[in-house]
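Researcher: Please translate sequence to structure tokens.
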Amino acid sequence: MRQRTRSGRVARPLRAQVSSPFTEAGRAVSGRRPLPRAARRGHEQGGTTRAPVSLFGKRLTPWPGLHEKALGAEAAEFLAEQLANGLIVGLFQGRVEAGPRALGNRSILASPREPGVIERLNATVKFREPFRPFAPMVLAERASEFFTLGQEAPYMSMASGVTDKARELVPAIVHANGTSRLQTVTRSQNPFMHDVLSAFARRTGVPVLINTSLNVKGKPICGTPEMALDCLADSGLDALLLEERWITK
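Model: Translation complete:
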């Protein structure tokens, strides 16, 4: 039954107003100014942001310790090279993902061949207990070289046994019980990550990367560019690939 005001008019139901980092109301929440209109249009539509570098450069003013450069078509090769050199990199690309796992659009990536990478991720990036494991992502067409699951696992939702090759080459992704919760990546599923894994394999011989969500302990996965920049500035991440912009400290 509808409620009426004292004047006899039907009272309209109250509607919740949700603020966003891209609105004036969201400033108090995010602590950052909204992106320029040209930069935010692609993000609001769930697409890939393609703001001019000059516009996005202004957005780094609240993060004075960060620096950027534009990449382009070579972004996948460039990222693979940095990962092969031991950097821990945040990745923010395309549409935000829904579900329990980060699958390559809001991820932190690292080489499983880097000595001490798990300890560094837990201590300086994710700020969590040192025993916590990390999951791998692998080219689907080469998954059987490292994992015994025998099927694709595109959503990082299944644990698998590992092969002797995995124990030898990428022990960082093998959990204490001898399993890994893997994500297989096909070109149709995520073309960019398929290119990154392929380029990483050409450099290291291993088509496997550590993949964990782009956030730190106690905070949600980064849903906006501002959140991703905060994550870079406030954690032990070495760099952030934000669409085709390479952001470093």
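Researcher: Any highlights?
Model: The chain has one domain: 68-248.
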